[in-house]
Amino acid sequence: MMKEEINIAIAEYCCWRNIKEIDYQPVGTDPYIDGPSQIWMGIHPESDSDSKEYEVIPDYCNDLNEMHEAEKILFTTNNWDACAYESALQKETTSWAWHSTAKQRAEAFLKTIGNWEEVDT
Questions:
Q1: Which end of the chain is more exposed for a tag (fewer CB within 10 A), N or C?
Q2: pTM listed for this prediction
């Protein structure tokens, strides 16, 4: 899976709503030189149901803090077995599981919930 697909799948599991790709031009860049940028946005899970305010979804693949928040949701709201997650995480890293990167944790997370899709090379 590509980084964006991983981030979207975890965000959806964490109850982000209406996730979509939006054209975004960072301040100080020239769209004719730098080209347009794309970002993924959605409605935050803690926003009320009538909210139309979009936020950038978390970058779970690069942010250990965001993965920690996702792991809390995994274990508290759905009672997933921590051993299954740790086993999946151990397969992603050659070191101790607690030394794993955010990307390794994101992949293990999706494998634990059954949402990982292998990419044909």
A1: C
A2: 0.82
70 Cβ neighbours under 8 A, 6+ residues apart? 10, 13, 14, 58, 60, 106, 109
Number of Cβ atoms within 10 Å of the Cβ of 10? 26
CB under 8 A, 24+ apart: contacts of 60-66: 60/6, 60/7, 60/10, 60/11, 60/102, 60/105, 60/106, 60/109, 61/3, 61/6, 61/7, 61/102, 61/103, 61/106, 62/3, 62/102, 62/103, 63/102, 64/101, 64/102, 64/105, 66/102
CA distance 27 to 34: 12
At 114, list the tokens: 């059954």
Q: Is the distance from CB of 24 to CB of 49 less than 8 angstroms?
A: no
